[in-house]
Specification:
Number of helices: 2
Strand order of the largest sheet: 1-2-3-4-5-6-7-8-9-10-11-21-22-23
Order of helices and strands: HEEEEEEEEEEEEEEEEHEEEEEEE
Number of strands: 23
Largest sheet: 14 strands, antiparallel
Oligomer: single chain
Radius of gyration: 26 Å
Length: 477
Amino acid sequence: MRRGVFPFLVAFLLVFSFSLLCPRESRCDDIRLIGGFDLQLSDTTTTEKTTGNVTENETTRYSQRYELEVSKNLFPQLLFQAGGLATFDQSDSTTNGLETDSDSRTLRPFAELRLNTPLYNAGVTYRDTEGKEKRTNQPTTRSFRDEYVAVLNWRPVGFPRFDATYTRTLTTNEPETQDRIEDLLSLSTQYSWKNLLFHYTYLLEDAEERITDFETNRQSHLGRIGYGNEFFDRRLFLETSYRIEYSTTEFSGEGSGIFPISRSAGISSLDGTPEDGPALGGNLALIDGNRQVSSGIDIGLDGDPTTLANIGVDFGFPTSVDTIHLYVDRAIPANVAVSFSWDIYVGSENTDPGSWTLHATVFPAPFGVFENRFEISFPSVETRFVKVVTRPLSSSITLDPALRNIFVTEMETFFTVSGDVKRLTNEEHTYNFALRGKASEKTTLGYSLSFRHQTSEPPSFQRTRWINTANAVHRFS
């Protein structure tokens, strides 16, 4: 019964019984119950002026959403929360006489126990997610994920802070094409003293693909020290930092896995000529590791339909890549996600006007069941710059107001490793130095230095890059 609505019902009954059976003074501090219903009827006719083709579409969509959350302070600093989310979507569409139906369901019960004190925080969380989808002329699919999370944060005043997180995730589906166990341990510490910042993170990732009997073990060490200050009554500014990362990845079994690739910069633009358009501008939000915060790129209905979204990264060095995970800020229905087409462009430089080569077209790209991301795979290519190009969502596909905006949040890159490779190592050193000073109230002089050294095995290589920049800015009025 775990495969049905059982987890959601269990969470509901637990919190309901807890609120009724306990003494009145022990009942829940907060109960939140939300029910939402949405019925959409649309009838659209689209005419292409260049070809004269006419597309007529009638769509009926009915959505239900139920959300329950109960919280109780068991002790002054111990909080218990439980509840769940249930969504049901049914869509009937007719396009030029061709009928398609889709029916989807998502259940997400959870329970959490959290301890909050001025010195430390700790918590344990359980989440269960079940998704079911049925479409015309396609078999019914089900996806399941169980997630267990333990967190500990220590915040002493005047001493290094410490954060630890352990996550275990079990993912399966029906028909059985995926059976995966993932364990992630993250340990980090950070300490700031005056204008100095010290940071260290250790990551341990274990993943096992049970169907193919392929296992991946990755350990990563990341250290960073930074300093910034201003002198002479804010007329001279100094910033410098050093970063070192060392990682090892071991594989076992006869299958294959994907290996993450370090990115030096995120880049993006809105341009209708991706082959030779202007240089893409910097976009740090694409590589900052935050999958929830928007990078400012909108591929929803409110995106500009007359141009293309160019979304890319700079690796710093020519690197082999064959997989891109593009995260967005919301779930997208399967019938809408498959409407996006992705052109993969590669280039050796990002200049104005520049030159990009079309490497592959991916249509459609699978959209994650549990994570809001497009999984774009293509033939392996070695390049320094790579970008995906797509057109924002068209009103001929959907008029769903929830999809007015679909903001891209993160772009992750990978290359596939077969079972023949048993171990990978990667080491990177990065140093940055920047000095900026005011020669006068209208004139500013600056100098910056960037150094990056990377070694890898296999393939065996060493790469070094130096960038020196000097500039002068004068404001005439």
